[in-house]
Amino acid sequence: MVAPAGAVAASTGAPAPAAVVAEPVVAPRADAPQPRASASTDLADDPWHNFIDYFNELAASAPAGGTTTRPLRRQADASPESASAFALQAARELREARARERTLEVAEANEQLRRRTERRAQVEAVERFPLSGLPVDDGCKYVGADFQPQLDLAERDEFLEVMGMPPLFDEPRARFAMAEASARHQLTLLGGGQPFKFGITRGPSARFHNREGSGIGPRGGYKGYFEEGYDGMVVIFCGPPNHCAELERRLIATHRPNRACQNSADGGEGKAPSGVASFVYMSWAKLGNFADLETKRKLRPPSLISRSRDCLARTRG
Predict the structure, then answer these.
(1) Which of 22, 102, 239, 267 could lock 252 by a disulfide, CB 3.0 to 4.6 Å apart?
(2) pTM score > 0.90 for this model?
(3) How many CB atoms within 10 Å of residue 218?
(4) Which pLDDT belongs to residue 43?
(5) Into how many domains does the chain fold?
(6) Does residue 254 sit within a domain?
């Protein structure tokens, strides 16, 4: 028989052990704060840290000898100082990105406003640009390839300039208004009191450099504007002959009150036959210290005359 523990203690003289008391189980309160998950559990669903993992995997799989890429560190793994610096850098980059977006939005809005203003000015110019009532269509079809060879010659000619050509498919009055705007712009650049003259031709470069009787046109061709003392020519329009004649008449009627305008006829007399690609131009000169065009022509340096001859030879090559 086994003696009770108290009896054994009493017989031996040792103190009896304390009785074990079970602690009551207390249920957690509903409003008690929940324990926070570990950093690794938090970061698994974070897209930014997923990107960091993906970037580090790419860096680890990079071929040997390539560019060394320093692995990115999670913010949870960084020291408090580096985490604060990372947050400041992210905020700064966000502000810069928003500033760039705002700049682009403002630039786009300004460009749209400029286009609307330009289009409105063109419409107003068309409304102020009455036609003479003469027919402008000749029944022929014209495409850009009909005009390109002569435009290429003009662009390679140091004495000529081709201003923005109105698109062929635009309504005729809109194209006329654009050409009129080009003429006004050139007159502004030329300055007051300098001679200018409007005309139509089928070959601008040849028309400017022709020696008397050496080119195409009535009676063997006109004397070129270079031979008359002009300095240059601006091509402002291309289209069917009837369109060019109509535009020339309008330009002369508009600018003839200017005493520097050298046109004596009403315009349209030298238009080409139907089906021939034609151009409207404005020749100009800066007299400088010369009294008139004839004096300037006689005193031209031989080197300038030689360059004009080279341009004329190119039109025949």
Answers:
(1) 267
(2) no
(3) 8
(4) 45
(5) 1
(6) yes
pLDDT at 64: 53
Range of the domain at 269: 144-316
Secondary structure element (H or E) that encloses residue 233, with its range: strand 232-239
DSSP state of 32: S
Would you say 140 and 274 are in contact if contact means Cβ atoms under 8 Å apart? yes
Do residues 183 and 260 touch, judged by C-beta distance below 8 A?
no
Tokens of 116: 């609307």
Distance separating alpha carbons of residues 244 and 251, to the nearest angstrom: 10
Is residue 173 a contact partner of residue 129, using CB atoms and an 8 Å limit?
yes
pLDDT at residue 175, rounded to an integer: 85
Amino acid at 6: G
At residue 192, the 3 state secondary structure works out as coil
DSSP letter at 144 equals G
Contact 280, 247 (CB under 8 A): yes
Tokens 């079809």 belong to residue: 141
pLDDT tens profile 111-159: 888 877 776 665 555 455 555 555 556 778 888 888 999 999 999 999 9
Q: How many CB atoms lie within 10 A of CB 176?
A: 25
Quick one: tokens of 237?
A: 């329009």
Is 201 domain-assigned?
yes
